[in-house]
Design goal:
- This protein has three helices and six strands, in the order H-E-H-E-E-E-E-E-H.
- By secondary structure, it is of the alpha+beta class.
- The protein has a six-stranded mixed β-sheet with strand order 1-6-5-4-3-2, sandwiched between helices.
- Strand 2 and strand 3 form a beta hairpin.
Length: 140
């Protein structure tokens, strides 16, 4: 699986939102991949029809930033074994912390879907660690 994902803009966007609060954690419990649409294709088409989102493509991966809902979407390219796949990461506030809630709907190869989930969990963890590191440096 080609894992050259457009993390730069996605991770930076998450980090910017998360940096506004003292602690960021990643919700590890998925709720069955509930992305709010009946399929990956339905989610992509609905987002593409909106004028209030920002879209970009890197190495075939489609990223959609939905600032109104504090959500970042990533869609696997057609040639990826996990395709069709959608990763929905939403920033939510819980008490005095920001949590990244991630839902994945993967309709491709089961092994590729597992790898995709692990990759995005790793990206979320890296983002959380970077924000914590940045917050620690601000307190010094």
């Amino acid at each position: 699986m080609n894992m050259k994902l457009p993390c730069l803009s996605v991770c930076l966007s998450l980090a910017v939102v998360a940096a506004l609060t003292p602690l960021v954690s990643t919700a590890q419990d998925a709720d069955g991949g509930d992305i709010g649409y009946p399929s990956v294709d339905a989610a992509r088409k609905a987002l593409e029809a909106r004028s209030d989102v920002t879209m970009s493509r890197v190495n075939g991966w489609l990223s959609v930033e939905d600032p109104v809902n504090k959500t970042l979407w990533t869609f696997a390219p057609d040639d990826d074994p996990a395709h069709p796949a959608a990763i929905k990461r939403t920033v939510v506030e819980e008490f005095d912390r920001v949590v990244i809630v991630m839902d994945i709907r993967c309709e491709g190869d089961a092994g590729a879907c597992d790898a995709l989930e692990e990759h995005f969990l790793s990206l979320n963890e890296s983002t959380r660690n970077q924000v914590e590191h940045d917050n620690d440096n601000k307190q010094d």
